[in-house]
C-alpha cells in the first residue's frame, strides 16, 4: 500500500493537493471520508483527520470491549444449559430480565425457592411478577440453576426436572399470592 503524499518530492505528489491511498493492485482504497489534505513534505504526518479518526476508533473499540465484557459477565449469572452455545446479547438481556423477576418474587415469597417455583408452575400461586419470568426459555433452564448457591438443599433440585408445563400452567397470570 502507498499514498500519493509519500512521494519523493518536497510538496504533495498529487496535483490537487490531496492524499490518496492505493493498494497493491494500484487502485484507490475506499475510505468513505474522501481524500485528505496532504502535508507538504512532512514525513509520517497523518493529518488532523486521520488523528481524530484514529482516536475515535480507539474510543469506539474500548466502548465495545466494555459492553462485550459486561455481557460476558451477565452471561455468567443467568441460568444456561451446559451444552448451550453463547447466548446472543438480546437473548441474554431477555433471560436476565426474566431471571431477575423470578428472584425478586422468590425473595418476597413465604416458601423456599423451589417450592415457590413448583407451586407457581403448577398454577397454585398467582405471583405478582410471574408473567415476567414464567417463560418457556427460563423455565427450561431452571433445572440447571446452581441452587446450592442460593441456599437450597441440593436434593430438592430434581423437583424442577419432573415438572411438566401445560398451556394452563405456563404463566401464572398477574395477581396476588
UniProtKB/TrEMBL annotation:
One of its GO terms (biological process) is developmental process. InterPro entries: bHLH_dom, E-box_TF_Regulators, HLH_DNA-bd_sf. GO terms for molecular function: DNA-binding transcription factor activity, RNA polymerase II-specific; protein dimerization activity; RNA polymerase II transcription regulatory region sequence-specific DNA binding. The lineage of its organism: Eukaryota, Metazoa, Ecdysozoa, Arthropoda, Chelicerata. Residues 51-103 form the BHLH domain. PROSITE patterns: BHLH (PS50888). It comes from Rhipicephalus zambeziensis. Keywords: DNA-binding, Nucleus, Transcription, Transcription regulation. SUPFAM superfamilies: HLH, helix-loop-helix DNA-binding domain. This is Protein atonal 8-like.
